[in-house]
Amino acid sequence: MNIKQLLSQRIAAALNACGATDAPPVVNNSKRPECDYQANGVMGAAKRSGRKPQELAAEVIAAAQMDDIAESLEIAGPGFINIRLKADFIASHCAKTNPTVSPVANSQRVVVDYSSPNLAKEMHVGHIRSTIIGDSLSRMLETLGHTVIRQNHVGDWGTQFGMLITHLADVQAKPEHGSDGATADDEFALDDLEGFYRASKQRYDAEPEFAQRAREAVVGLQSGDADARALWQRFIDLSLAHCDALYARLGVKLTRADVQAESAYNDKLEGVVQRLRERNLLEMSEGAACVFLDEFKNKNGDPLPIIVQKTDGGYLYATTDLAAIDYRTHELAADRVLYLVDVRQSLHFKQMFTLARLAGFANQEISLEHLPFGTMLGADGKPFKTRDGGVVKLASLLDAAEAQATKLLDARAERSELSAEERAQVAKAVGIGAVKYADLSKNRTTDYLFDLEQMISFEGDTAPYLQYAHTRITSLFARGDIEASDIASTPILVEAEERDLGLALIRMQEVLEQAVSEGYPHYLCTYLYDLATRYSRFYESCPVLTSEGEMRASRLALCERCEQTLSLGLELLGIETVARM
288: Cβ–Cβ under 8 A, 6 or more apart, which residues? Predict the structure, then answer.
């Protein structure tokens, strides 16, 4: 149950009973010890109706039907209403019969566009944020009962593939030309393919004749030339195999079935241009087909062009994105589409969404949302690079994280019962979990500093801290040889630490609903860290295994619900839990 929503409904009903019906109240969590939630909206309603805020607040309290929920309702400040929940109400929502999370009433079909690497090059750190943020939001949406359609809009088209297939054709024709070691009979490993890309790019920049042939190859690809397609497919198969391996290592729920590449829309691109022409939206500018929208202008006040077809007949990202919106609206029947793409593309998506609605590719009902994110920074405060200034490969980043986690666990080895094999398994879970949590726990719109030592620590707001909190509970059950019959169905909240923990436990639903509504996974991270901290205070102040009878069963019930909530929360972040650490 979404407690915040329930309280909002009750306060709204009371406002309605008092004749203040023009605006819904806002109920927020409170960190003040005297209350659990605080309702506002009374002051605005009072102002609009010409009444005194405190007098209206008193009427609302008198009219509120809260006896089954609230221990007290009190006026705070100029017209806020402090709400303190009953301990019995909190306990009942921590009961075994009450699920941690329930499906929402109005579920949707949600397309989540994430990861989207450019193929023919190895995935690097720039892909991690889209990949793990999109994966986490997808998991949360599914848990709340939404139908999620994952779309990995990989870049498998365009100029880079014109360069690659042209260079490969030259290498096959003249094997000695391949100074990178490639021959006509070679199957490229991805590392070789990365070098192959660099070689083709150097030729593209230095040889005008090669560049022209590469551009012509792109047009050939788009027009279905069989030879170009065969060469292109070699690069695609190798690149997707690399992506699959990294997704498996990251624990990301993306498969080949989720790949809806740029090339999938190739047959629709001519139709996109034609539909724009039929709606009189298309203009020719210097030989290119463009759309100019008055909503988007440059610093001189001139409308910015959206180019949908180049002078050579080739299409651009905008054309493909319009085709994708049309597909997601009319074929996938999405209610909502989330685009996990970095902040630098904000203008592009504003233009795409505006044009898509204007041209009928999207209807007015569908919600098109760009969820931008910032950049991972190095110690120098600049985009994260290797020591020699190159782009850090994602596989190398994960290797470093696992190595740091191994180092941390080895330092604890003397007081650990883990075997060497178990430590290796835990190091993988801790290292990769730490990288993911460090990213997800930050507001996605901000840049953040990549610091492995801080990320992989058992102290502070980190994945290892949460993983260890979860392990403490499972080890407690193991030490106590706990059976299900030892655990109460509903806990009894007597001590302040018991009540504080119970209050946190019943907030999981509202946190998830807010996270998916606004597209911010860090809401869940903040919640889980607060929950783990409250459990630590509870564990220190309220003996569990040494308690007896009803109190022991009650505290075990709180521990069980906390374990379930931490386990679910970490799973929704895509972070693995371990039995021992």
Answer: 305, 307, 309, 310, 311
| Spatial distance between the Cα atoms of 45 and 41, rounded to a whole number of angstroms | 6
Could you tell me the two tokens for 426? 């835990």
From 235, 253, 271, the end of a domain falls on 253
Is 214 a member of any domain? yes
pLDDT reading at 236 higher than 50: yes
Is 207 a member of any domain? Answer: yes
Average pLDDT, the chain: 91
Q: Report pLDDT for 238.
A: 87
Write down the H helix ranges in 207-268: 208-223, 226-250
CB 32 within 8 A of CB 53: no
Residue 12 resides in a domain: yes
Are 165 and 81 part of one and the same domain? no
Task: Give me the helices (H) in 279-340, please.
Answer: 317-326
117 vs 128: CA distance, rounded Å: 10
* Structural domain count of the chain: 2
322 vs 159: CA distance, rounded Å: 19
> What is the percent of the chain with per-residue pLDDT over 70, rounded to a whole number?
96
pLDDT tens for 380-409 read 888 888 776 778 999 999 999 999 999 988
Q: Around Cβ 427, how many Cβ atoms within 10 Å?
A: 23
| Nearest C-alpha neighbor of 240 from the set 181, 180, 152 | 152
Nearest residue to 574 (alpha-carbon basis) of 511, 521, 513: 521
Mean per-residue pLDDT, 319-339: 98
- The whole domain housing 71 covers 3-85
Distance CA(6)–CA(510), nearest Å, equals 10
Separation between Cα atoms, residue 57 and residue 73, nearest integer Å = 10
Query: Same domain for 165 and 248?
Result: yes
Query: So what's the pLDDT on residue 483?
Result: 87
For the stretch 207-228, pLDDT in tens is 999 999 998 888 888 788 898 8
Please report, for residues 472, 544, 554, the alpha-carbon distance to residue 479 in angstroms, rounded to integers and kept in the order given.
10, 11, 17
Instruction: State which of 37, 56, 85 marks the end of a domain.
Output: 85
354 near 271, Cβ under 8 Å? no
Residue 183: band (very low, low, confident or very high) from pLDDT cuts 50, 70, 90: very low
Whether 273 maps to a domain, the answer reads no
Two tokens, residue 549: 């009878």
Q: Is the pLDDT of residue 185 over 70?
A: no
pLDDT tens, residue by residue, 101-126: 999 999 999 999 999 998 878 899 99
Q: Which amino acid is at 30?
A: S
Helix (H) or strand (E) run with residue 71 in it:
strand 70-76
